[in-house]
Specification:
Shape: elongated
Strand content: under 5%
Low-confidence stretches: none
Structural class: mainly alpha
Distance between the termini: 79 Å
Number of strands: 0
Helix content: 55-70%
Number of helices: 4
């Protein structure tokens, strides 16, 4: 009886683990890639270029006031001004 229960528990454990060991669903991945490509092909190139140049995400490094600072408030201000100039010239 003990051997039957052990076998049953082992089989249930393997049945529970089996779907997790499956690989990626390539059909879904390829379908998403085709949909993304179709969406990009449908939008005009000029609108895509303007959106890429003038994204709303301003890349600002965290402030560091140490002696070897990677970013300072002044450097972040210069980056913001350069991005604003790029967006103004693109529009």
């Amino acid at each position: 009886m003990k051997k039957a229960i052990t076998t049953l528990v082992g089989a249930l454990a393997l049945a529970a683990v089996w779907p997790a060991s499956a690989g990626p669903d390539w059909q879904v991945i390829e379908q998403a890639r085709r949909a993304k490509q179709a969406m990009q092909d449908a939008s005009p190139a000029s609108a895509r270029g303007a959106l890429m140049k003038c994204s709303l995400d301003v890349h600002t490094l965290p402030l560091d006031h140490g002696p070897r600072a990677q970013a300072t408030p002044y450097q972040n201000q210069l980056r913001k001004q350069a991005q604003a100039k790029t967006c103004a010239s693109a529009a």
